[in-house]
Structures are given as C-alpha cells and as structure tokens.
Amino acid sequence: MMAPCERSTLKAVCGFLLFVLGLLTPVGMVAQSAISPAASEPSPATKSKKEAAGSAARTQLDGCLTTADGLMPKLMLFHSHKFYRLEARPRLLTESPLLFANNINALVHVTGHLGPLSDMYDPDHSPVFIVETIEKLAATCDVKMSLTQLRKQLEKPKAAPAIASSAAAGRIRPAVVVNMTDELLVFDPGTIEIKVGQTVMWRNSSREVHTVTADPGKATNAQDVELPKGAKSFDSGYLNPNQSYEHTFRTPGTYHYVCTLHEVQHMIGQIIVKP
Ligand SMILES: [Cu+2]
Fold it and tell me: How many angstroms is it from 13 CA to the middle of ligand 1?
C-alpha cells in the first residue's frame, strides 16, 4: 500500500514522463518519414502536437517551389497543394548549393519548423516555414509520378561524376585561371582578355559554393549577363569548394557572367574575347 502523498508524486512523475514522450513523438515521426518517402507531409496529428509543443519540433515537407511574388518563394505541398511561405534560416543560402530562386517549379524536400506567425503580406496568409535544409528531389513537379519514383530519378544524376571535368587532366591548357576566393565574393581577376579559341578555367578555392553563369535566364537580373551576338550561353552549375570549370570561347566579343549565388553581392565577371 502507498501513502496518498507517494501516490500523487508517482502520478506527477508519470504525467511528466508522458508529457516528455508527447514532445518527443514528432521527432520520432520525422525520423520515420525520412525512411519512408511516402510520408511526405506531416499528418494532422503531428501538426497539432507540434503546435502544442511550440515551433521547436523539426518537420519536413515535400513540394513544388512556386514563383516568388516578392523575394521569398512559396512551397506547394506535393499532393495536397497546400501553400507555405518559405523563409531561409540564417546562412542557408550561402551554405546550400540550392538557391530557391533558381529552382522555381522544382520538387524540393525541406526540413525546418513552422514560424510563429503566418505571412502578413501574403493575401492568403500562408503559414511561414523556416527552412533548415533544402534538397532538390526533381527538376520539375510532376504530380503524376509518385514521390518514390521522383526520388529514384534524382538518384541517377547524383551518381554521375562531378561536373566540369571535360578538359580531363591537362588535355587543354587554360589560357587564364580565374579564382573564386574566400576574402571577397569576387572573380579574381574580374576582367580578363583572351583570344578566340582559348580556354578559361575557374577554380573554386573558397569554402563557399559558386557558379560561373553566362545565361541571362538563370541570372537574378538578366542584364547582368551579356553575350556577344551568336555566342551560346554557358553555366558551370554549382561548383563546390575545390571544383573547377572550363569553357572555351569560340565567339569574339564581350561576355559578362555572374555567380548566381552571389550576384546580388556583385560577383560578376567580364571576359573580352579578341578575334
Ligand atoms: Cu558565388
């Protein structure tokens, strides 16, 4: 037999344990749904528990990035078409090779948590989702396919070797090497002059991800990119630290190119190709 006070203490302890377990449940669910891709959205039960536990619990969403009406994009959940306003946690955009703005209509997988307030500037007052990590699942949001199929589709290019190894080990000697260093977000040298037919190599010697992009369609401001008449656009894709990219210039004229990740910080370069 227990004294009444002991029993109430036991009750309180049990109650506390249940409370803690309740808090832990969403985390467990996240881990579980990471294993099973079918669980693409938090279930209503997860959500209400999360809301009860505050905004600290991590959750994950799969959906299509939709056009930004302002600067921040929205995410439309893959099948239910519910909208979230995405907000990047500090430094995400410089750490992650996936920039929201460059992946409109891509299927992405984000982890993070719901913000405390919905978006007051949005006419629909979409809930704000603070993104911790972002991963691209597929280039386009094709809802006719299942998430599992799309994930499989994505795994293939991942296995491919790194970009830009076209000029394998010194086959073509670059005429100029442009560095992307840590001190400043710049191409160094910013302006170079070469002759038609010569190759330029860009080397990412920084800890950031950069791109070498001469494609007005991929730039934030199309006018930051300039190509001579008849020249084809080019894009290195994301260059991780220590990766490099080469391009041979066959059309004379002046080229302006950008790093799409740091274009707003004016990471813009110029190449003058003499005939
Ligand atoms: Cu950059």
Answer: 54
